[in-house]
Each structure stands twice: as structure tokens, then as C-alpha cells.
Design a protein that fits this description.
- This protein is mainly α.
- The protein is globular.
- It is 80% helix and 0% strand.
- It has helices at residues 4-19, 24-40, 46-64, 68-82.
């Protein structure tokens, strides 16, 4: 089972890779992170799960638009705040 700390570290690592211009490998890892987060939040409150859904939706939109810096911001700031 993933832990909050591991997910937070994974998100920070991916955010850095996106900021540095690497997109292929972190984009593939993003799916794994999303799966881990969904498993982790299966025990969360409906409000927390809803916040996760909003963040993941925004991340997906950034990925579709190739907005790598926006995607990194969501991982580094919005998701990190939710995982506090």
C-alpha cells in the first residue's frame, strides 16, 4: 500500500522532471502515481477524494495541452498541500 510520504516524494520527483523538460518518462510514471493516489484516498473522506479528483483532472488537462509547467505546479503545490 502506498504511503502519503512516498506519494508526496514521487510527485515532487515528477514535477522536477517536467520542469527540466523531460516529458516521456515522467508522463508514463504519472499513471502509476495516479493509481497509488486513488488507492491511498480510498479511505479518505468524500471531500478529500473530491479534491484529489479535481487535481487529477487538472493534471490530465495540462498533460493533454502539453502544459508541462502547469502540470508540475499541480504536482508540486496543489497535490503536496492535499497530502499534508
Amino acid at each position: 500500500m502506498p504511503t502519503i510520504a512516498k506519494c508526496r516524494q514521487h510527485a515532487a520527483k515528477l514535477a522536477l522532471q517536467f520542469r527540466l523538460g523531460s516529458t516521456t518518462a515522467p508522463a508514463l510514471e504519472l499513471a502509476s502515481l495516479a493509481e497509488q493516489l486513488i488507492a491511498l484516498f480510498s479511505r479518505a473522506t468524500p471531500q478529500q477524494y473530491g479534491q484529489l479528483q479535481q487535481i487529477l483532472t487538472a493534471v490530465l488537462q495540462c498533460q493533454q495541452q502539453r502544459d508541462w509547467l502547469g502540470l508540475a505546479d499541480y504536482l508540486e503545490y496543489e497535490l503536496a498541500e492535499l497530502l499534508q
